[in-house]
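@here heads up, posting the sequence + SMILES for the zinc ion run so it's all in one place. Ping me if the SMILES looks off, I pulled it from an old spreadsheet.
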Amino acid sequence: MPRQYKDYYAILGVSRDASEEEIKKAYKKLIKQWHPDLHPENKKEAEEKFKEIQEAYEVLSDPQKRAMYDRFGYVGEHDFSQQASSTTFEDIFRDFESFFGRDVFDIFFGERGSTQEAQKAARRRAGEDISITVEIDFSESLVGKQVPIEYERYEMCDHCHGEGIEPGSGYQTCPRCHGSGILREERRSVFGVFVSTRTCSMCGGSGRVIKEKCHVCGGTGRLKKRVRTVVNIPAGVTDGTKLKVEGGGNAGYGGGPYGDLYVIVHVKPSKKFRRQDDDIYAEITIDYLQAILGTTVRIDLPDGGSTMLRIPPGTQPGTMFRLKGEGAPSLRTGRRGDLYITVNVKIPDDISGKEAELLKQIARMRGVDVL
Ligand SMILES: [Zn+2]
Ligand SMILES: [Zn+2]
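bot reply: prediction finished. Complex structure tokens:
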């Protein structure tokens, strides 16, 4: 029964002659991209993808496993499709036993897991990223703000330095796979007995497990802690801006590096101002007499201050004034956009009899027909 061939290079999107550095880089990028927490709508698919990426990286990041994979197309599993057709299933079985007997295995992996360092490195994995949301006012989004935040994350266990191993304790042969790193499954059907193999989940294929887990963290190497800190929201953020705080995520596994913290900024909309790119738009309403005769009005600025705006005589309703450099600062360049003020003109509907008389005089002067 042919086993499924997985193209680990394709999974990581690297070429077959990719360097260790390239593989690591591709893995780091993908593992962030496919973190199941980031795909709540299709978690199952993300989880599968996530596992696949990890599997590919486990093999390609280990020079010995990679060499074996390049040569045989698999690691630690026997490709039964290569068997001669005359072989009985029992033969396959026996062959299997010898194939995966310690001797053969050790040839492939050399000093397989013989040093503690190699074991530790195999268990080491980066922690997950964490996302939190903070809310700020529109005016704060223009000047920036130091926002206190509080969230839960896993931190490295100090007692075992994140390795999950009780200091002074070593390793023992994995009780599930008895040191082979491989689990064998046998399935009987009308066609005979099919045997499939997979990497032992208990020891991750290393054949060894920790003798004594850290008594403080229970072997995970991590402890849940409440974090209180201050995040610096830069001037110019818009609703939905995602800020990265490197190392602010969960502690890694087996002493691996911390994940990152993503702070998603929610900017409360303003009643007065509307931002478009780095320009800001607002409206003011003036009296019809001000529009005719001109005036100077005090207007609010988006970042909280105010300024005087001169309205020239004869200003038409809907006229737009531009206040250069009073818009929002660009998050990338810091350069400020402009503020645009549209002028509405209010026509009074409550004038007195005296006012009406005076206006009728003006109407006659201008030859305008009125009621
Ligand atoms: Zn095992
Ligand atoms: Zn610990």
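MO: The chain is about 25% helix and 25% strand.
MO: One more: Residues 115 and 121 are 10 Å apart (CA to CA).
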